[in-house]
């Protein structure tokens, strides 16, 4: 409630207004200046933050802790001898901890491939303290994604997959996981950037299109979900850069969607291949051939006898669209081509100099 003070209009004891008061003054005495009324000030609007508690309460039961045991064999630097008979291979058990989340009531769990890599035994604990043994349904080191199934699981809580393509920079995000062994930890931040590539995160990770966030992601968070404010999964938390404060990275869930059917059906991802090497289009070339809009991927080399070679593509071509999909840059073309399907014939739109060229290309299997 705002209060306004009025001077000279007080209320009499009988409820009516008081008469104006005459002030007697000496000749040299100044009459007091009338006071200005105090103007009511509107309250400054206070920013209202989303209430994350309801979202977290719904999502928490579907986020799991993953425990693995791996047998590691340590081999001696030299062979055993008469004087050193103890120089034999030794085994030790290595235990590790990560996160994951349920995507189906029958116990399907998504996590990072590096969380379960080479594991001899995988155990999963739910928020309600139930334990399950898990088996690997499929894994893909090149995207760092793994799919597990909990044994004898039924009617479990699970998370809905969202649409990471619709994520806007600056949007609120929620990370849930098991950092440093601290179970069921929730952190909140924003999507700091999208489409991060060529990051020094190590491992076999070949395809990168990370969501960057300032929500805290630490060792043990790997494999946990990144949620939007509706509680839908938009990413899998996977990486931090050593020494980087407030720099966490998540695999977009739409990238996971692309390979999930292959992981379920075959246990691995068999990728298709164009038979070309590509790079981003330099600005000078873009201007020279009259490409006004950004996008496209420059063919730097064509593999002899490969699909692109058979279709008549050449080094110097700029790929603009493939299978009716826009090519934003070289990384995007590589990802699209890898998931189009072996044996499919697709249209490719090319700029060759100042000429538009269309070819039909039949995809082959990516060489191992």
Written overview of the protein:
- With 368 residues, the chain is mainly beta.
- Among the domains are: 103 residues, Thrombin, subunit H (Beta Barrel); 94 residues, Pdz3 Domain (Roll), CATH 2.30.42.
- It is built from 6 helices and 20 strands.
- The strands form 4 sheets. The protein has a 6-stranded antiparallel beta barrel.
- A hairpin with a 7-residue loop joins strand 11 and strand 12.
- The longest helix has 14 residues.
- The chain is globular and about 65 Å long.
- It starts with 51 loop residues before the first helix and ends with a strand.
Essential attributes:
single chain, 368 residues, mainly beta, Thrombin, subunit H, Pdz3 Domain, six-stranded antiparallel β-barrel, six-stranded antiparallel barrel, globular
Helix and strand arrangement:
Blueprint: H1 52-59, E1 63-74, E2 90-102, E3 108-111, H2 113-116, E4 121-125, E5 131-140, E6 145-150, E7 172-177, E8 185-196, E9 210-213, E10 225-227, E11 233-240, E12 248-252, H3 253-266, E13 272-273, E14 276-280, H4 283-288, E15 297-302, H5 307-310, E16 318-322, E17 325-326, H6 330-338, E18 345-352, E19 355-362, E20 364-365
Antiparallel strand pairs: 1-2, 1-4, 2-3, 3-6, 4-5, 5-6, 7-8, 7-10, 8-9, 9-12, 10-11, 11-12, 13-20, 14-15, 15-16, 16-17, 16-18, 18-19
- Helicity, as a percent range: 10-25%
- Please tally the β strands and state the result: 20
Specify the CATH architecture of the domain at 164-266.
Beta Barrel
User: What would you call the structural class?
Assistant: mainly beta
What do the pLDDT scores average to? Answer: 85
Q: Which descriptor suits the 3D outline?
A: globular
Classified in CATH, the superfamily of the domain at 164-266 is Trypsin-like serine proteases
């Amino acid at each position: 409630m705002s209060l306004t003070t009025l001077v000279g209009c007080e209320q009499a004891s009988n409820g009516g207004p008081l008469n104006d008061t005459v002030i007697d003054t000496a000749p040299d005495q100044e009459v007091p200046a009338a006071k200005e009324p105090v103007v009511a000030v509107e309250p400054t609007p206070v920013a209202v933050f989303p209430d994350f508690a309801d979202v977290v309460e719904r999502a928490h039961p579907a986020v799991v802790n993953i425990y693995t045991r791996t047998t590691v064999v340590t081999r001696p630097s030299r062979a055993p001898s008469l004087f050193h008979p103890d120089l034999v291979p030794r085994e030790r058990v290595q235990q590790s901890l990560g996160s994951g989340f349920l995507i189906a009531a029958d116990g399907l769990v998504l996590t990072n491939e590096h969380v379960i890599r080479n594991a001899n035994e995988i155990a999963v604990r739910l928020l309600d303290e139930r334990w399950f043994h898990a088996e690997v349904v499929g894994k893909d080191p090149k995207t760092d994604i793994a799919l597990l199934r909990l044994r004898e699981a039924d009617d479990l809580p699970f998370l809905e997959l969202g649409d990471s393509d619709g994520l806007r920079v600056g949007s609120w995000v929620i990370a849930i996981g098991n950092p440093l062994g601290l179970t069921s930890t929730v952190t909140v931040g924003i999507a700091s950037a999208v489409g991060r590539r060529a990051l020094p995160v190590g491992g076999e990770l070949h395809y990168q299109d990370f969501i960057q966030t300032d929500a805290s992601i630490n060792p043990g968070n790997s494999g946990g979900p990144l949620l939007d404010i509706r509680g839908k999964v938009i990413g899998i938390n996977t990486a931090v850069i050593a020494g980087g404060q407030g720099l966490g990275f998540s695999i977009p869930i739409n990238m996971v969607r692309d390979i999930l059917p292959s992981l379920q059906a075959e246990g691995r991802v068999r990728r298709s291949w164009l038979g070309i090497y590509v790079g981003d289009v330099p600005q000078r070339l873009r201007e020279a051939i009259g490409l006004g809009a950004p996008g496209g991927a420059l063919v730097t080399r064509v593999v002899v006898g490969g699909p692109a070679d058979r279709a008549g593509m050449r080094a110097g071509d700029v790929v603009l669209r493939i299978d009716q999909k826009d090519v934003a840059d070289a990384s995007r073309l590589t990802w699209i081509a890898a998931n189009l399907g072996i044996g499919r014939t697709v249209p490719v739109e090319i700029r060759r100099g100042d000429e538009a060229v269309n070819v039909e290309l039949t995809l082959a299997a990516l060489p191992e």
